[in-house]
Amino acid sequence: MSITNFPSSANPSPLNTSTTDKSLTKVTVPALAEMKRQGKPISALTAYDYATSRLVDEAGVDLILVGDSLAMVVLGHENTLAVTVDEMLHHTRAVRRAVRRALVVADMPFGSYHGSVAEGLANAVRFVKEAGAEAVKIEGPRVELVQALTAAEIPVVGHLGLTPQSVHRMGGYRVQARTAETIVQLKADAHALAEAGAGLIVLEGIPREVAAEITGSLPIPTIGIGAGPDCDGQILVFHDMMNLTFAPAAKFVRRYADASSLLRAAIEHYREAVEHRAFPSDEESYHLSEAVRKEVNTAHEAPISIQALHKA
Ligand code: KIV
Hints:
The protein has helices spanning 29-38, 50-58, 70-73, 85-98, 117-131, 143-151, 167-170, 180-196, 208-217, 238-241, 259-275, 290-298, 306-311; strands at residues 42-46, 63-66, 103-107, 135-139, 156-161, 200-204, 222-225, 233-236. It is of the alpha/beta class.
């Protein structure tokens, strides 16, 4: 068996990225770069488990980020800092099993790349080797680490602007790059990451004008969240767009569904049905065949109930 899969009509080129053609052509980092060149918007969402990743992938979203936001929206932590490499690997594996088309990006959690470059590289390798990630995302302008990951054949997604792992340094979740000095720095950081080999950059929580300027001047795609409509693509946290966060939404979040109300109503309906013995119905029950019922009944003097059968 060959490990090299050359493009053919059965396995078309990854550059076949028509947004109306949501065939199973696998999305890759070079394919996303080509989308930028062609001016095609890139859709991205976070996902953390098998079921929602299948829905996101089958809906044709281009990139799925197993975000460390799972610390908050899935595990109930106050911020993203507590989630571990092993927890992120566990969720990345579940997502990987579900996804056939989208690019699967794993977020490197806080502490997993903040020491030496060698340690960051070793942790990134785990995401690729043990969980099937196709790229890793790291926060901040870590140029040396991006160079090392790129040299090790691991595609990198950078993340600049409001970087949630820096919550304590920033003094909260605040919009970044609002002054001339910080805008210049952000732009320089974005270019340094691109030159170091990053394949994409997430721009979070920055003014629209700054994101537009960076997007226009960078050779690689930008994916915005709270960065306005001029980025090459957009990403939202799945639980934000579905109203599953139990908290007021940030300004940039659009609620596309109210899963909270939908699920709450269904759960209450189920509880009431159980309490009123309306679930399960006879149609939702298994039954003995007539022959077995007769056999069981003739073996006993009186017809026996199902409960008695269980005791026998
Ligand atoms: O963890 C996450 O969900 C993210 C997105 C906000 C980009 O990093």
